[in-house]
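Morning!

This is the sequence you dropped in the shared folder:
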Amino acid sequence: MSDHQDAHGGNILATARQLGCAVDELVDMSSNLTPLGMVPGLTEALAAGLGEIRFLPESGSETLVARFAARHGLRPAQVLAGNGTTEFIHGLPAALGMRRALIVTPTYSDYQVASQLAGMAVANFPLRPEEGFGLDLAQLSAQLTGGELVFICNPNNPTGGLVSSAALHQLARQHPDTVFLVDESYLPFVREPSLATFPLLANLFVIGSFSKVYGIPGLRLGFLISSEDGLQRLAVRSKPWGVNRLAQLAGEFLIQHGDGYVEETIRFVEQHRPAFVQGLATLPGVEVVPGVSHFILCVLHGAQRAGELREKMLARGIMIRDCSNFSGLDDRYFRVSMQSVTKNGQCLAALADILQT
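The structure's back. Tokens below.
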């Protein structure tokens, strides 16, 4: 496995194979998926449509894009569907032909990988641990000279920090010569409007994921939203049949049936996050980084290190994320993502037992 492939959480299939156990025997707190599992009825809808894999999928996911656009008050020409958000994270730097990237860190590693593969010079805008990893948009604005591609994850992975979408939109308007890629993969878990609800700008690209909030990472489905002028540069480079037929069918089903589920997910996080965070904060030698999302970044202040803690938790069948390979973090940081109340309790009990010994 390459270093880049190993840089992500949630590799539950490989972990189960490595441990010689069934996937269902593991509690995965390392990925940032919904705590509620898949949307009811989705499995049945996919089973009913399975025969459609005999045909090519729609070349540009036209039906899916039209339904997504209508659901969000957009025009189809303002939306692209892709093979997960990864397609757009890698495709946009290559399509834009820009020379510099500025990445708000610590954050998702693929932004840097994609920029380097596109031949861009990469600089970081580091968030400070002493400031709770908060993003000061005024300080970021002062760093922008024009001609750069700026990556912002909102809420940010792994810190869980959130900035106002209205403020991000204003920042993009103030810097028309800078291009902004805002990753909203985790925005459906919190009550904050998407940038897709603001006037679309040619220098602002918004990506959203169905993988995380709907718990379908194996299907690979993401969306890119921008003005028609902004998307044109990428649309001409899009591959035909970029989204497989089952992912198209899943997306169409979720747009029609997923709203109540998303609201239920938000309520679950609002209801159970405080107790889970409190449980983490009372563990010996653990400090919780302030955030709003369903995943929580923690820092160890004792002798224990994140890699060692991860291995000890894995021995108990619980996966957590060692965050030492995030730019700007060290071997004291780990991340846990909320799951069911029962699994959250299992995680806290195992952490307490390990950290108290």
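Headline: The first helix runs from residue 12 to 19.

More detail when I'm at my desk.
O.
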